TrEMBL record:
<dbReference type="InterPro" id="IPR016167">
    <property type="entry name" value="FAD-bd_PCMH_sub1"/>
</dbReference>
<dbReference type="InterPro" id="IPR036318">
    <property type="entry name" value="FAD-bd_PCMH-like_sf"/>
</dbReference>
<dbReference type="InterPro" id="IPR051264">
    <property type="entry name" value="FAD-oxidored/transferase_4"/>
</dbReference>
<feature type="domain" description="FAD-binding PCMH-type">
    <location>
        <begin position="47"/>
        <end position="228"/>
    </location>
</feature>
<keyword id="KW-0274">FAD</keyword>
<dbReference type="InterPro" id="IPR016171">
    <property type="entry name" value="Vanillyl_alc_oxidase_C-sub2"/>
</dbReference>
<dbReference type="InterPro" id="IPR006094">
    <property type="entry name" value="Oxid_FAD_bind_N"/>
</dbReference>
<dbReference type="Pfam" id="PF01565">
    <property type="entry name" value="FAD_binding_4"/>
</dbReference>
<dbReference type="GO" id="GO:0071949">
    <property type="term" value="F:FAD binding"/>
</dbReference>
<dbReference type="GO" id="GO:0003824">
    <property type="term" value="F:catalytic activity"/>
</dbReference>
<dbReference type="InterPro" id="IPR016169">
    <property type="entry name" value="FAD-bd_PCMH_sub2"/>
</dbReference>
<dbReference type="InterPro" id="IPR016164">
    <property type="entry name" value="FAD-linked_Oxase-like_C"/>
</dbReference>
<comment type="similarity">
    <text>Belongs to the FAD-binding oxidoreductase/transferase type 4 family.</text>
</comment>
<protein>
    <submittedName>
        <fullName>FAD/FMN-containing dehydrogenase</fullName>
    </submittedName>
</protein>
<keyword id="KW-0285">Flavoprotein</keyword>
<dbReference type="GO" id="GO:0022904">
    <property type="term" value="P:respiratory electron transport chain"/>
</dbReference>
<dbReference type="InterPro" id="IPR004113">
    <property type="entry name" value="FAD-bd_oxidored_4_C"/>
</dbReference>
Amino acid sequence: MTDHTPYQDDGRLKRLKDSLIERLGPQAIIDQPDDLVPYVTERRGRYKPQTPFVVRPASTQEVSETLKLCTALEVPIVPQGGNTGLVGGGVPYEGRGEVILNLGRMNKIRSLDPDNYSITVEAGCILQRIQEAAADVDRLFPLSLGAEGSCQIGGNLSTNAGGIHVIRYGNMRDLVLGVEAVLPDGRIWNGLRSLRKDNTGYDLKQLFIGGEGTLGVVTAAVLKLFARPRETAVAFVAVQGPEAAVKLLGDLRRASGEAVLAFEIIPRIALDFALKHVAGTIDPLGQPAAWYILVELAAGRPDSGLGDLLEEALSEAFESELVLDATVARSEAQAQQIWFIREAIVEAQKHEGGSIKHDVSVPVAAVPRFLELATAKVREMIPGIRPVPFGHLGDGNIHFNLSQPLGADREAYLAQWEVVNEEVHMIVHALGGSISAEHGLGRLKLEENKRFKEPIELEMMRAIKAVFDPKGLMNPGKMID
């Protein structure tokens, strides 16, 4: 059970809770310590969040009522979705009396328009449910994440989530047609337009997408749908190295007519971890290699010959010595076995002790240089460290995870998180990259972002924050101070 330190409160929190119970009903309030645990549990255990109570509105109007009261009483509020974030963006600080606004009860699919290739959903909808609803009408919602069975679309919107299909469909920013949002003063902006073209002013929805709940609360969105692939081809490929992988990506994009759906890089150490710790993991190739690529192509026809195309392209890459070996899945079961490797390497790292993590991106062409420089730097800093860089090479997003040296003390190793992050992020910045590719900034990267952002960018961000949230009540201490 989480320890909840008593708040030194002047009575505003009680007045707020009493008013919310009166207007929303007692079912909208969670305030018992044991019941609060899931809402104040930070996924990586880096923080010990505290809140006096959680508000769970059931409608946009109830969100509006909540924000009006919070603004009137000057009580800070933390919007929260499925609480699956990795940077502390959806949890409160300790001892500040910040109330959590959880959107889980707002989970309706409001409308589904297959002809317009769009779906309108509330913020609390689980991502997987949206995927399934689209599939039921022979459409695709392409956002795909490891947490898709529990994360909520509101959180995906607020962090501009990415995932494995960004190379083909883009980030969350690219998948949204319109949003509905409640401003800090309780006013409701209905921007639920399903238009593909609208040049009548600023694209206001983009302020809320990736805004981490610092400007208001996204309560619903109109999302883009796509035609479902009728045929896919999956391969597991051993490559000469990251440089060869980048060249292979370009060759496959050209040969397939931009049919590349996913292009994931995996080092041998990650596969070894998965084979050791996760039952059901296979080694698809006969001989070990230092680097692998998991590639998937997709086509709109079931008889497109995509598998033959992929095999031919890989044969040509073998002749040009980009590829050392490869296997192309011959069935859906084999494709799932290959994709299971990608899922297993995330789980397997937990069994190898402490892991210092980075969610970074650089231009795709700069990935090999980043891996070279960052690996050399961390090995210089911590002898015996075990880099496990993997992820979305197709869009330049690398999860540069660093497992502790064998036999090291876990806590002592993790105490070096910030200093290691700083060195790695300096390399990322020098290569024109981003210190947060898809997880957001939250609490974790607030100070670092101030070091790497241009002063004029921070000035513009603060100016926008001041217009929307002049009292600084919306998710305070996240993204920008």
